[in-house]
Amino acid sequence: SLLRIISLRSNNFDGHIPHKICDLLNLLILDLAHNNISGTIPKCFRKLYSMANRNKNNRGNYMYVSEGIYLSALLVLKGRQDEYGATLGLVTSIDISTNSLTGEIPKEIARLVELRSLNLSRNLLTGNIPDNIGNMKLMESLDLSMNRLNGEIPLSLSNLNFLNHFNVSYNNNLIGQIPTSTQLQSFENLFYMGNHLCGPPLTKNCTSKSIPTDIANNGSSNEGSKVNWLYVSIVLGFVMGFSGIVAPFFFIRPWWIAYYRKLDHICGKLYVYWATMG
User: Fold this and answer.
1) Which of 28, 175, 233, 261 is most buried, by CB atoms within 10 Å?
2) What pLDDT, on the 0 to 100 scale, is given for residue 181?
3) Domain end: 135, 165, 198, which one?
4) Transmembrane ranges (predicted)?
């Protein structure tokens, strides 16, 4: 098929993404955003030839105004919506944001090395960001925000030299240090919010992985010593109190007799009180 653009955004489509889309070898733009699509991201996306291996000698991959056909499309790239016309053939984009997609981001998607924009935001995606995502070296816009992703941001992302829009905010479970690169440190803090990330551009410093103090010190931490001495002081206090106050009643006969006389007197008064109340 010579189909190059599928733009079906902002409808009420539901169901899964059909695998037949993967047979569209000339597809440059896939836009299914703002629908009710569920299921997982097809692994067969790797077969989208024009996104994986642009053949510059193949005229079918480009659109020309001189042919009398002017194609345009509204695309959300780099966080904003723009209209692309004559240069549309130079854009490769997948936008399946704002749906109900589940499962993990398939590592096969990183084979689309000619892809310029990938928007998977506002879905229910889980798991880690694929480690090989750094293979998409021409990527300019990557939006993975508002999902349920976890783990660390892959170090390979620092290889994306053309990246000028990156958003992983509000995934809640992303952890660790933001990989060091000129691009990743240039984005605003809000693109990393809602996670447990650290390091520049965030103000939160990264510390070494937290290890329980008693394990790090072979079970002899200062905190542990404080707790042990606390227990010792409690036991000693009980022993001293028992020997200094309670013990004489049992081991010194006059005290023992006086104690029980006093106790008998109190019991007598209580008996009279309850009898009167009855």
Assistant:
1) 28
2) 78
3) 198
4) 229-252
d(CA 98, CA 146): 9
Number of domains making up the chain = 2
pLDDT of residue 1: 67
Tens-digit pLDDT profile for residues 225-253: 444 445 545 656 655 655 555 555 555 55
253: containing domain: 214-277
Is the same domain home to 133 and 259? no
Q: Check residue 263 and give its pLDDT.
A: 61
Instruction: Give the pLDDT of residue 53.
Output: 86
pLDDT digit string, tens, across residues 153-212: 999 999 999 999 999 999 879 999 999 877 899 999 999 999 999 999 999 999 855 333
CA-based nearest residue to 51, from 97, 118, 103: 118
- Residue 228 gets the label, from left (phi > 0), alpha (psi -120 to 50) or beta, of alpha
Assess whether 160 and 127 both reside in one domain: yes
Q: Are residues 56 and 118 in the same domain?
A: yes
Count CB-CB contacts under 10 A for residue 60: 12
On whether residue 128 sits in a domain, the answer given is yes
